[in-house]
Amino acid sequence: MSGQRLPDGFAVQVDRRVRVLGEGAALLGGSPTRLLRLAPAAQTMLNGGRLEVRDAISAQLARTLLDATIAHPRPLSGPSHRDVTVVIPVRDNASGLNRLVRSLRGLRVVIVDDGSATPVLESQFEGLHCDLRVVRHSRSKGPAAARNAGLRVCETELVAFLDSDVVPRRGWLEALLGHFCDPAVALVAPRIVALNPSENAVARYEAVRSSLDLGGREAPVVPYGQVSYVPSAAIICRRQALIDIGGFDESLAAGEDVDLCWRLNEAGARLRYEPIAMVAHDHRTEFRKWFVRKRFYGEAAAPLAIRHPGKATPLVISGWTLVVWVLVAIGSGLGYFASAAVAAITGHRIAKSLSGVQTEPMEVAVVATQGLWSAATRLAAAICRHYWPIALVGAVLSKRCRRVVLVAAVLDGVFDWVSRSGNRSANSGAEDDEVKRVGLVTYFLLKRLDDIAYGLGLWSGVLREHHVGALKPQIRT
Prior knowledge:
It is built from 16 helices and 17 strands.
C-alpha cells in the first residue's frame, strides 16, 4: 500500500506552521518536528507552498512531503456514498440509534445489536429510506466484536463505523471520502464535537476538552505525532485493509481504536484526521459517569504498551531539553546558570543540524526557544496527568518539589485553557455567541479531576498487567 502512486491532479499544501529556511532550501516542521532538505529541482516544483502532481517525480515529492508530515493533502473528488456501508454497534440505546439512522438517509446501514435487552428490529426503521440490515448478538461481546461482525457482512469498498451516540453534521461524508483518492490511505476520521455543549459545567468543559475531540488542525495519524490515533466513534476505513490486519482486537476492553490505528500504520497504510468533517457526540456530562469514563480511558494504556512497545509512552522529550528543565527545577543560582549553559549547548546542536542551510542566528534562537517551551508544556502535562501519584508524594515530602508541582499544575491548566478556549466546537445549530464559555477556575478544577481520573486508570492498568511500559518516558538524544 505504501508504494502506490498519487494520481495526477492530486495536490499537497505545505503546513502554514512549517518554517521555510535558506530561501526554500529546507523546510522545518511537521509532527514530530524534522528538517527536510529540498533539492533545487524540488524547490522549483513548490509554488507558494503548493504542489500539484503531474508526473512520477512530482508524485514522489508529494508523497515525501506527506510522509514527513510537512504538508497536507488537497485531494480530488473521491468515491461516492454508494461505495460506503455504515456499521453501527449498539447496545441498549434505542433513542440514540433512531436519531443516528434518521441522519443517514440514502446510505447502506448495518446495525449490530450487541445483546440489547430489547432487540433491535429492522421494522423499527421502515420509511427512513435506508438500505438497512440488523445483525444480532444474543449476548454482549463488546464494541470491537460488534464492529467486526458488521465488517464481515459488508460488501462495499469502504466501511464507516459510527457509534449510536453520534450524529454526523452536514457534508461529513463528502469531506472524508476525498482522501480515499490517495490509494495509500486506509482510514480517515472526522472531528468529534459536542452534541449538547452548554448543559452544565462538565458539558462546557467537554465541549472544548473532550478526549474524543482532537482539535481543529488537519493532520496525519501517526504515533508520536500531533494526532497519534483517532477514536472509533466515527471513522471510515477501506474494508480490505481492515480485513488484512484482522479487524479490531476483540480482546481489548478499551483502546481497540488506538490499537487499530497503530496496526494500520505498521502495515504501511496512511491515516488522516480531517476536522472539516464533523460528527457530534452525546458526551457523558453527569459527573460520576464522566469521571468513570476518564478512568476507563486510562486503563487502556498498559495493554497498549504491551502490544506496541514504546508507542504508549506518556512523554517524548530530548535528553538535553530535559536536563535544562531539571536544572531550572533545582532552583538555585548554580542550577539556573547550568540550565542556561545547557540551553546554549542545545542551541549549538540545533545550529549544527542546520549546517548547509542559510539561516540567521535569530531563526536558530526561535527554533530553540520553541523547542524548550514545547518541552515545558509536555513535562507539566505529564507531571499532572500520568505521574501525579509520584508528584503528590514528592510534594508532601519536599518543599522544593511542592513548588515544582504547583508551577506545573498552574502552567498546564492555564496554558491548556488559553489554547482550548478558542477551540469551541461548532455546535448543533447554535450560534457561537449562544455557547457558554467555561471559566478559567472551573476549567482548571475539571482539568485536574480529568487528569486524576485518567491517572487512576493508568496506574491501575499498570498494576493489573504488571507492565510499566505505559509509564516509561522516551528520552531522545
